[in-house]
Amino acid sequence: MSKERSAEIAVEQTFVSHLIELRDRLLRVVMVILVVFLGLFAFANDIYHYVASPLMELLPEGQSMIATGVISPFLTPFKLTLILAFYLVIPYILYQVWGFVAPGLYKHERKMVMPLAASSTVLFYAGMAFAYYVVFPLIFAFLTTTAPEGVEVMPDMKDYLDFVLKLFFAFGVAFEVPIATILLVWMGTTTPEKLREKRPYVIVGAFVLGMLLTPPDMISQTLLAIPMWILFEAGIVFSRFFMPKDDDDSATDTPPDEPSSPSGGGGKAKTGSSAAPSQPTVADGPTESEMEAELDRIEADEESEEERERAERARRKTRKEANNVRMDHYEPPISERYETLDEEGEKLLDEEIELMDGGAESGASIHSPKD
């Protein structure tokens, strides 16, 4: 088996192993969500009542929520419980994502991912809590008092759930602004100074996003835009601690588990069994030199493959030309040029041959030197 084929098989096996690992982690996530959902399903009606209490407490006396659908009293709490189970399992989902991508990260990247993942989870939950305890009472107090005279406010339970889920998600995502700011500065895309210069555009964008993500009222739009602006300012402050340094490339490009050389040994490793190089683990990342060597090997393989293809095309062209030359100069024998003749045909052929011989002799006598 050639080296190229062996390399292809190794790459395919690695890809398949990654797919198997991804499948196993997704199955674990689904199983955990299912377990949490089954544990909460017995309290589905109580959970819905707790979520709907900001509106139900503000309804006029004698009015309540209604269910216009046939299966809404069962399906709506079911949907809320399933979504709540997913939100509660977000830390475990992030842990599984971390376990899948960690082997391909350097040590300094690992140090960044876990704090960012934990803080993003906390900020998402904080956004949902802010929406429930601050935004909902203000919005519903405004909406329940704006109904025209003679109109009873009796919202449908399904429509209410869709409304609050949209607000939960909008405020949860909006509270991730500091994480996005820190990531942009850490990757070197921008700097805190540049972000500070773009503050007017950020404020306008926050109000635009508030208009798009919230119901069409100024209260919810403002309550979403102002926290986004404040969190943006907080992100600028904290992003100063995550700015890339000049020596990051040389100090952090070493794989996380590779032992460093002793400072007093002049850069030479100790000999002996204690200084034997450790076997590479799954968590080791390729160094820059290893990546360059791999790219050089791939380019050499491609060049050798192109040389073989050119040589093969040249051989085919030469063989084709040789076949054409042979076909042009090929003359079959007389026995293959004519069909089998009978006696009369043979006599006629002999007479023609004699006439041709005679004509040739006469032609030769005409052009002889005697003339």
Describe the structure.
- By secondary structure, this protein is an all-alpha fold.
- The chain has a domain of 45 residues.
- It has 14 helices and no strands.
- 13% of the residues are buried.
- About 10% of the residues have low confidence.
Give short descriptive properties of this protein.
371 residues; mainly alpha; 71% helix; elongated
Give a concise summary.
The chain is mostly helical and 371 residues long. It is built from 14 helices and no strands. The longest helix is centred in the C-terminal third of the chain and has 41 residues, at 288-328.
Oligomer: single chain
Number of helices: 14
Structural classification: mainly alpha
Helix content class? over 70%
**Major sheet size, sense and barrel closure:** none
Strand content: under 5%
How many strand elements?
Answer: 0
The arrangement of helices and strands along the chain is HHHHHHHHHHHHHH
Distance between the termini: 79 Å
Low-confidence segments, given as residue ranges, are 247-283
Overall mean pLDDT: 76
Radius of gyration: 42 Å
Shape: elongated
